[in-house]
Each structure stands twice: as structure tokens, then as C-alpha cells.
UniProtKB/TrEMBL annotation:
Keywords noted in UniProt: Heme, Iron, Metal-binding, Transport
Source species of the chain: Luteipulveratus flavus
Pfam families: Bac_globin
Gene3D superfamilies noted in UniProt: Globins (1.10.490.10)
InterPro entries given in the database record: Globin-like_sf, Globin/Proto, Hemoglobin_trunc
Protein name in the entry: Group II truncated hemoglobin
TM helices/strands, residue ranges: none
Claim: Repeat is one of the keywords in the record: no
Amino acid sequence: MTDAADAGAVPTLYTWAGGEEAFERLTSVFYAKVLQDDVIGPLFAQMAPNHPQHVALWLAEVFGGPPRYTDELGGYPRMVAHHIDKAITEPQRRRWLELLLDSADEAGLPDDPEFRAAFVGYLEWGTRIARTNSQPGADVVRDAPVPRWGWGVAPPYDGG
Ligand code: HEM
């Protein structure tokens, strides 16, 4: 990228990741691991068969893709309702994150430092909010827009 006009062409994290198909690949690898896992598997024992696809649509929207989770599934209130009273512990949060990052490698998501920094940034943030909101008696914000996550301080490296 050499001039100001190109600066407007920074791709979203969604596009950089490979679009909707990449997030579907990610969550299908992830939930296969989750169901086998002794720390978090039991939390997901009753999940619906389309849960992985729903989470793929959530992540796609967060990272700059089309607002399908909002338009088709009920947006933030639906996501938050699924976490209420789940009493997620810190070891469970950590395991969720660790399995998701392993899945990103296996699913072939981009592994450049800039993409992974932004990706992990959102996941650290989101998993901590999920843990807090899941505690019995938590004062939960039940409605908000689906967050939109960007590159932060390190935009994609253009090699120049
Ligand atoms: C960035 C972090 C997270 C995101 C983006 C996320 C996203 C979601 C979404 C979108 C749903 C609802 C799916 C639907 O619409 O059908 C959901 C449900 C759920 N999430 Fe999360 N989640 C996160 C973190 C966690 C963590 C850390 C845990 C526990 C270790 C967890 C446990 C669950 C459970 C148990 C459900 C309900 C599954 C069921 O339907 O039985 N989530 N999550």
C-alpha cells in the first residue's frame, strides 16, 4: 500500500479470515473438540445441532461480516440468554479459549501476527464477559448491539 487512496481498502477481519466459510470451518472443528473435553464438554451436552453454525454467524458478524446473527437469529439478547446461569469458571473459560485457538490453527485461519492479535483480543474480551454474565445473580446487560471488532493498533501488514 503506497498512497492515501489505498488506505481506505483495509479488509475487514472477516474478509481476511476467509469469509463465512472460514468461520464455519472454525466452529465445526471447535465444537468437535468441545464435546470431547472433560472440562467444558458437559456444559455443551445439550447444545442444538446448529449451535456451531450460530456461533460461526456471531463471529462473522463481530469481525465485520454481514449482520446475519442480528437479522436472522435475534442478535445480542439471544447470545446473552444462552450464557445466563451457566456459572462458567475461569478454568472453563481458559479451556474454551485454548480449544478455539487450537481450532483456528487446524481450520487454517490466517496465522499472521496482526490477524491473530485482533482475533485473540476479541476472544479474551468476549470470554471474560461471558464468564461474568454467566454467574448466578449477575447484573446482566441483556440488550446491546453485536460488537464489531477491528484491527486495533496493528492493521494488516502489506509487506511494504
Ligand atoms: C467470545 C466468547 C464467546 C462467544 C462469542 C460465544 C458465543 C455464543 C453464542 C452466539 C451462543 C448462542 C448460540 C445460538 O444462538 O444458538 C452461545 C451459547 C453458549 N455458550 Fe458461548 N460464547 C463465548 C464464550 C463462552 C464460554 C467461555 C463458555 C463456557 C466455557 C460458553 C458457553 C456457552 C454455552 C454452554 C452455550 C449454550 C449451549 C447450548 O445451547 O446448550 N460460551 N455462545
